[in-house]
Write a structure and sequence with these properties.
Metal Binding Protein, Guanine Nucleotide Exchange Factor, Chain A, single chain, metal-binding, carbon-sulfur lyase activity, mainly beta, binds zinc ion
Length: 163
Amino acid sequence: MSNTVSTEGTLYKGSCHCGFAKYTIRLDFTKPPPSLHGANATRCNCSVCHKMGTMLTDPGDDGSSTFTLLTPAEKNLGMYAFNTERVRWFFCPKCSITLYNRVHGVFEGVEVRTFRVNVLTLDEKEDGSPVEDLKSLKIKYWDFKEVGLPMAPLDAPVNGGVW
Ligand SMILES: [Zn+2]
């Protein structure tokens, strides 16, 4: 892990709906990390993703060099932890919008540490230009409801209902 601040890609501003939570994140949609299997973002049909309706992307690190939570401090966000606390979702405690998640723990003998941001909470690029239209992004679909890991995400929505 590096504490060096990344300068690759584009700096985006993001926020919840009410503006209580604000962040910046550096993403490069032209070079998605291997975890996204060629997609820019993924949806998932697992029990929590389905109900939250999030669309997640991976900045390629654990957030330490790409993500800055401007306000509030993370401890003042809402946090929903499940799966024996290994999966933690962070959301605005005022308007409920889910911003990102952190996964850290051992899954079937393998240590996993990931960071994913909800691309639906991106507002604009640092220079004020608009975020890429979601239609231009490559979206893939995890079937965690029925398949789980290991697998690659699919090109079309899967049973259990993500669009
Ligand atoms: Zn809010």
